[in-house]
Write a structure and sequence with these properties.
The chain has 584 residues and is α/β, with parallel strands linked by helices. Helix content is 26%, strand content 21%. The protein is built from 14 helices and 27 strands. It has an eight-stranded mixed beta sheet with strand order 5-18-13-6-7-8-19-27, sandwiched between helices. α2 packs across α9 (360-373), α5 packs across α6 and α5 runs antiparallel to α9.
């Protein structure tokens, strides 16, 4: 949104209210339009020559331009500092003088500032407004809305543009806020009721939003929290519900971040936490979110009553939709997760639509609602940092964003669930290796492998593969576990356990002779080895010589592909963000 659409006072361009003060060396906001100034100010304010460019960088705001411009040799009467100009029709007295030759105003890119979309279910919508309006005043306003928590020792401490990004989005069951005390346990301390690990690949081609069931039985590690009396260590708990990683015993979001890392193997960079008001206020801000129902829903607990078909929901109705579970699917929390994923996918599409991006008022309202409902870690507790993060996340095309759920099986108590390790480990491996559930990343990797040619050609039978397995990883017994899996599960009987490698390796390698290339390709297929792991020699092997497989620190477990599987294991619940699915 440019300055022309923000309104004016006394024909003054609001963008020009940011002017350079030569006394302090800073840009300052001048809201006083009275034209009054003291004689002392007049006498002490020197004239400052104009810069070569018509735009300036505003100190303290990276990438921000202060539109105030000075005209050489010209003093604007009635102002304390130079730089502010009138906006009047024509070029007569009091108007803006025509630009001089060689000082053409640089044209801003059309879409860059409108790219930061609502990728994480609404909690980063403020990025849209901050990136579009582009004024320091806006940043200050939204900064004052934000709540921050300093999580001790949790997270990576930041994010880098050339690395994958992991954001934990937490929806609490705390009933704070107007009109929310009637939902369930009004005395809840705020558990991790809805948790989504949003993983964005290193090259920003794909993202996976992984829902973690609140009733999953898992281990919660020890964690440090900051209290009014200093730092406190809260002891971990074995075999308890995941949602107790927040709130219970005074645990803060840092405890949830540690629990997610322990569960998935992924380091969480930052967290964003929102309450019930986030859903109500943000859906209202965008003018509602379209959902589709395959059947009538009448849920007395969530108070959702809708006939089958498409509906546009906002406010209380939208909250009722994401809270409903008894009238959809199997009536449990996993069914509620699925309907939430459908809702968030629709919300992403709404944010991507021109109807939202072209409406400054919607973007402002959305940013206002999101920042008021949002709590973040101190590492991203400023709008400028959130803007930068939002710009990175916005590079992902919605067609390559997939919502998935941690694979689980029912527990014997009928109220909780257990991790389905045979499906969960490959899924976690995919995320660790940036493999997209929409297969876009795998296709790119396949193309790269094809260029190298190492994985092209015939494959030997598993029974003909000869390999000696060394353990160069940090995992004790990795070579034995891999040998057992190769022999018992894959039929690679001509294999041996050679114990520890001479030294630790960062990545798994497979060394082989030219006449063993067909064996190497077969083993690469079985273990999910990338082309980079294959190390061909120059001399043919003689007799029964075996290839050498050395497991590295990228080893995740016997049978878990080193690069992640090409696609998600069968039966993993997932929803693609660019497709509408009707709730059943």
């Amino acid at each position: 949104m440019d300055a022309q659409s923000r309104g004016r006072a006394d024909e003054i361009d609001p963008a020009d209210q940011w002017v350079f003060n030569p006394q302090t060396g800073n840009y300052e906001l001048r809201l006083d339009q009275s034209g009054q100034q003291s004689s002392a100010a007049k006498s002490t304010a020197p004239r400052t020559p104009a810069p070569r460019s018509s735009t300036r960088r505003s100190p303290g705001v990276p990438g921000q331009e202060a539109p105030g411009r000075e005209v050489p040799g010209r003093e604007t009467p009635g102002r304390e500092v130079p730089g502010q100009r009138s906006r009047r029709a024509g070029s007569g007295s009091g108007g803006t003088p025509p630009p001089t030759a060689g000082r053409r105003k640089r044209k801003q890119p059309k879409s860059r500032k409108k790219k930061a979309l609502l990728w994480t279910g609404g909690v980063m919508a403020f990025v849209v407004a901050a990136g579009s309006i582009g004024a320091y005043l806006v940043y200050q306003h939204f900064n004052s809305n934000l709540n921050t928590v300093d999580v001790t020792g949790a997270g990576s401490g930041g994010f880098k543009k050339d690395q994958a990004v992991n954001i934990l989005v937490i929806g609490t069951d705390k009933r704070s806020g107007k009109g929310n005390d009637g939902y369930g346990d009004k005395n809840s301390v705020g558990h991790a009721d809805t948790s989504i690990l949003f993983h964005v690949s290193k090259d920003r081609t794909n993202a996976t939003a992984l829902s973690i069931p609140r009733d999953l039985i898992t281990d919660i590690p020890d964690c440090e929290t900051k209290t009014a009396d200093g730092t406190k260590v809260i002891r971990g708990t074995h075999k308890t519900r995941f949602n107790e990683s927040l709130g219970q015993e005074g645990r803060d979001p840092g405890c949830t971040m540690r629990t997610v890392k322990s569960l998935t193997g992924l380091t969480v960079d930052h967290f964003m936490m929102a309450d019930f008001n986030a859903v109500k206020s943000m859906t209202t801000a965008v003018g509602g979110v379209e959902v589709c129902l395959a059947k009538d829903i009448h849920d007395k607990d969530s108070k959702l009553n809708l006939p089958a078909g498409k509906h546009v929901l906002e406010g209380e109705q939208a909250l009722a939709f994401v809270r409903t579970r008894h009238s959809v699917g199997f009536g449990g929390d996993l069914s509620r997760i699925e309907i939430q994923q459908q809702f968030l996918s629709s919300l992403i599409r709404k944010m991507k639509s021109s109807d939202t991006l072209s409406s400054p008022s919607k973007m402002w309202d959305l940013a206002e609602a999101a920042t008021k409902a949002l709590t973040v870690d101190s590492g991203i507790g400023k709008i400028s940092r959130l803007r930068d993060l939002g710009m990175e996340l916005s590079k992902v095309n919605p067609k390559n964003i997939t919502f998935a759920t941690v694979p689980v099986v029912d527990n014997t108590d009928g109220a909780t669930v257990l991790l389905n390790e045979s499906k969960a480990k490959p899924l976690f491996s995919m995320m660790q290796n940036d493999t997209s559930l929409t297969e876009v990343k795998q296709k790119e990797q396949d193309a790269k492998n094809k260029q190298q040619g190492l994985l092209e050609g015939t494959r030997a039978a598993a029974s003909e593969v000869r390999v000696a397995v060394f353990n160069g990883s940090e995992t004790r017994g990795a070579a034995l576990a891999t040998l057992t899996w190769l022999q018992n599960e894959e039929g690679v009987l001509k294999s041996s356990n050679e114990g520890n490698a001479p030294q630790k390796l960062g990545r798994t390698t497979l060394t082989y002779a030219p006449n063993q290339a067909d064996q190497a390709r077969k083993l690469a297929d079985l273990m999910g080895l990338p082309a980079a792991a294959l190390k061909p020699g120059t001399k043919d092997a003689v007799g029964r010589a075996a290839m050498t497989l050395t497991l590295g620190s990228d080893y995740k477990g016997a049978g878990v592909p080193i690069t992640g599987p090409a696609k998600a294991p069968e039966g993993v619940q997932k929803v693609e963000a660019d497709k509408q699915v009707c709730a059943k």
